[in-house]
Write a structure and sequence with these properties.
Length: 79
């Protein structure tokens, strides 16, 4: 088991741990490194059959549905 900071190398170099404190800051690039690490794990566990199955089940909303939801959110949040 490892912390997110350890898995993304947040403790090394810029944006990493303060010396000896064990506290981590979200320096520039930390979110991108974390997202890349998550993508790598997902890609490592994908199979061609699994990708094909996911693609077959994918349903993107129609533009009218997106506009309807956007209008609903604008009304709800006063935007």
């Amino acid at each position: 088991m490892a912390s997110l900071a350890e898995l993304t190398d947040a403790g090394s170099g810029a944006g990493g741990a303060s010396a000896g404190t064990g506290s981590y800051s979200a320096g520039p690039g930390l979110a991108a490194r974390f997202a890349a690490a998550v993508k790598d794990v997902i890609r490592a566990h994908q199979t061609p059959a699994g990708i094909a199955s996911a693609e077959a089940a994918l349903r993107l909303p129609a533009p009218a549905e997106i506009e309807e939801m956007a209008a609903s959110l604008r009304k709800r949040y006063g935007l």
